[in-house]
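User: My advisor asked me to double-check a structure prediction for Serine/threonine-protein phosphatase T before group meeting. I don't want to rely on an old file, so could you generate it fresh from this sequence?
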Amino acid sequence: MELETSQFEPGKLPREFVLAAMDHFKDQKLIHKRYVARLLLSCRKYYESISSLTEINIPTDPPEHDPTTEPRVTVCGDTHGQYYDVLNIFEMNGHPSATNPYLFNGDFVDRGSFSVEVILTYLLWKLHDPACIYLSRGNHETKNMNKIYGFEGEVKTKYDDQIFELFLEVFSYLPLAAVIGKSVFVAHGGISTNEKVMLDDIRKIKRGIEPPETSLMSDLLWSDPQPFPGKSPSKRGVGFAFGPDITEHFLERNGLSLLVRSHEVKEDGYLIEHGGKTITIFSAPNYCDTMGNKGAFIHFDKTLKPNFTQFTSVPHPDVKPMAYSAGMGGLFGL
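Assistant: Sure, here is a fresh prediction for Serine/threonine-protein phosphatase T from the sequence you gave:
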């Protein structure tokens, strides 16, 4: 299917092309470099133009593929290059559309060895219809992580250095957090331990850069919850862990009801903490082919109450996780 350059613009990419590309990827084939370059250039321009904080509304109509369900937004956590598990999510929950929107909460790449296919699929849907899929940056949408955990090697094997640099530019402009229905705050790592941070501070974060070691951006990408009050240095060596009191104060002063974050593998695919105020969602089942965990995603309808769906891993071609990595690294540290 041949496309014109003008079709690689938000809202103009044909759905048929996206579906054909997904089938191509499923068969371990790539789309041409010229299409990837156009896609990445267009996405960089698009993301550069929008806020660091995405506002997402619950659709007014039910998903077209399942009109008996309530209108909803689907939130997924880390998918980490597990393309065949992403296909399974779409099989279970329907393809992205304006009436079936998804929010993927960072860490699309690294670890799994089909990261190129995962992120290209998400970006193709984004150009098809910006209202059908939302992406927030994770700590693995960064140059340092990509160098260690496989994405750089994978892109340079499947394409080249130029395409990898374009990916980094797109990553640097991705939004850093989202609010669903003016009530549910979603960020990859979590929240800042600074008790004065407001949503406007997040909106004003300068993007187009790699995350500074200590910054509000790094807090959103790297932080983790802890069960006891207050803050502690992160076990990851970057940022802080935040207690239930910090979560409650952040939600109260910003008029929010719930924090959803990802960033950590969970045996059941999700974990509810902080008296029900913090949810971790993780969508890469049998993480790195070794963990045996379930994956999960969350539906939010107009009630804004979380509704969880769990799933197990599906078979994938015989390419091991971390096949393109510069160094194995620890499975759990970052």
